[in-house]
Amino acid sequence: MPMIRFRLIGSRADADTLIIGLHGIDGVEHIEEIDDPALGIRDDSSSLGSAGDSDAHAYLIEVGAASDSLADDVRMNAEILASECSAGIEFVDDF
To answer: What pLDDT is stored for residue 51 in this prediction?
Structure first.
């Protein structure tokens, strides 16, 4: 089963929209949001809470597809959904 892994940079609502949209694709075997405690750690706490901080967060999402061609469809749909939400998306091999 091909696995598609990506980081979504956006809001909680963006991540939910993308996950719900991908659930609607026939042949998607599972979708899982992966917790990564390191994503919440900041290297520089001197600007914590400053006005320049954005509301965007990184969400790690893993999708299992039934075939390679379906995996391509999942990637294409994920890019479209992320674009519609004005969220960033980065496909990766491993988290």
So the answer is: 45
pTM over 0.85: no
Q: Are 1 and 68 in contact (CB under 8 A)?
A: no
Q: How far is Cα 95 from Cα 93, in angstroms, rounded to an integer?
A: 7
| Cα radius of gyration rounded to whole Å, the chain | 14
The residue behind tokens 């609607």 is 24
Helices (H) and strands (E) in the chain, counts: 2, 4
CA nearest neighbour of 33 among 69, 55, 8, 68 = 8
Percent of the chain that is helix, strand, coil (3-state, to 5): 40, 30, 30
List CB contacts of 19: < 8 A, sequence separation 6 or more: 31, 33, 61
Write the pLDDT tens digit of every residue in 62-91: 999 999 999 999 999 999 999 999 999 999
Q: Which CATH architecture has domain 3-35+56-92?
A: 2-Layer Sandwich (3.30)
